[in-house]
Design a protein that fits this description.
Layout lengths: L1 E5 L3 H13 L3 E5 L10 H4 L9 E4 L2 E4 L1 H12 L7 H31 L5 H24 L10 H10 L3 H4 L8 H11 L2 H8 L12 H7 L4 H4 L1
Parallel strand pairs: 1-2
Antiparallel strand pairs: 1-3, 3-4
Helix pairs in contact: 1-3, 1-6, 1-9, 4-5, 4-6, 5-8, 6-8
Family: Belongs to the GST superfamily.
Protein name: Disulfide-bond oxidoreductase YfcG
Keywords: Oxidoreductase
């Protein structure tokens, strides 16, 4: 059975959504990143980059959320457009989220909520880049039902992973400035698979508090500064 290494944060949620859409059986394995379990030797054998998600599909190990999305969609022949044109669009937007929205969102969260000191330049830099990426996505979705075209694909699942947490970066207004993105995110969130993906965290007992242990686990490179 496929093993799914999981913590309920944006990137693992992309994989959770696809697994639930596919309704393929899997064993849920918690990796409590707030406790630093991602740095344990047994997990580093799965992902040497010490990040979730990762999967072990009967001996085939895949890490990085977008690699997993593409691997599973290709294996099952679902949520990947069949035409060359839409397939190319799917790849382009999947990578746009992978190399743009995802890392800029992660950095925005860090500097807005977790940096040891307020750095106005960094906060502005990453917040404005997140907003710019959402504008690009919103313009695309004003012209197209989904990112790849007429059909729901793994590119939309990748968008949902971070956009579902947009309020943590953008504040109470959330996605209201990006109505076309909000339309797609709300539609995906209403799907039964998304509800099942969200419910996965209820099956686990994970650390919730963000304390010094968690800071060391998530940002181990900062220990050099403290020293």
């Amino acid at each position: 059975m496929l093993k799914f290494y999981f913590h309920p944060s944006p990137n693992p949620m992309k994989t959770a959504l696809l697994l639930e859409e596919l309704q393929t059986p899997f064993e849920l394995i918690a990796v409590d990143t707030f406790k630093g379990e991602q740095h344990q030797p047994e997990f580093l054998k799965i992902n040497p980059n010490a990040k979730v998600p990762a999967i072990d599909d009967d001996g085939v190990v895949v890490f990085d959320s977008h690699a997993i999305l593409f691997y599973l969609a290709a294996k099952h022949g679902r949520f990947v457009p069949a035409t060359a044109k839409e397939h190319a669009q799917m790849l382009s937007w999947l990578q746009f989220v992978a190399t743009g929205l995802s890392p800029f969102s992660g950095q925005a969260v860090h500097f807005l909520h977790h940096a040891p000191e307020a750095l106005p330049y960094a906060r502005n830099r990453y917040l404005k880049e997140v907003e710019r990426h959402y504008r690009v996505l919103d313009n695309r979705l004003a012209q197209s039902k989904y990112l790849a075209g007429d059909d729901y694909s793994i590119a939309d699942m990748a968008l949902w992973g971070w956009a579902n947490f947009a309020g943590y970066i953008l504040g109470e207004k959330g996605l209201t400035d990006y109505p076309n993105v909000k339309r797609v995110v709300d539609e995906i969130s209403a799907r039964p698979a998304a509800a099942r993906a969200q419910a996965l965290k209820e099956k686990l007992t994970l650390k919730a508090g963000f304390d010094e242990e968690t800071r060391r686990a998530l940002f181990p490179q900062n220990a050099e500064i403290a020293a």
